[in-house]
Amino acid sequence: MAGNAADRLGDRTVLLALAAFGVVPLAVLPFVEGLVPLAVVTILLGTRLGLDPVSNAYIIAVMPPAVRGMAWGFFRTLFFFLAATGSTVVGLFFDYGLRDEVFFVLAGITALGAACYVYLPARDAV
User: Fold this and answer.
1) Are 23 and 124 in contact (CB under 8 A)?
2) CA gap 28, 73 in Å, rounded
3) Of 29, 99, 102, 122, which alpha carbon lies 20 to 30 A from 70's?
4) Distance, CA of 115 to CA of 12 (rounded, Å)
């Protein structure tokens, strides 16, 4: 659905909307109690999964064809490294009893990402 929306509305619009929308469920998660409210917040957090296919397609589209394979391999390796580091950082927060705070930090990082998407040039402008 995110890919179809990006084709119709543009990458930047969809990436910005998904990232901005993802801030709220992260920020309210520490305050949610009960199975049904937690299930609703979990489903809302799932919308963040739409970011990856749209951002991947955008990055590949704007890379020069001469370096596309090598550059994409480098960026994917970097993305995986950063993702693995994130799990460690979240684990450290939990080890120090900062369970609620880690969700606020993740919400802040997501908000920062959304702000970056505001400046993302359109595919045809690159």
Assistant:
1) no
2) 36
3) 122
4) 11
Cβ within 8 Å of residue 39, ≥6 positions away: none
Copy the structure tokens of residue 106: 């993740």
SS3 of residue 78 by DSSP: helix
The token pair that represents 108 in the structure block: 């802040």
Short-list 30, 83, 20, 93, CA closest to 50: 20
pTM: 0.83
In this predicted structure, the answer to whether residue 86 has a pLDDT above a threshold of 70 is yes
Specify the pLDDT at position 63: 87
The pLDDT tens digits for 33-71 are 999 999 999 999 998 888 888 988 888 888 888 888 899
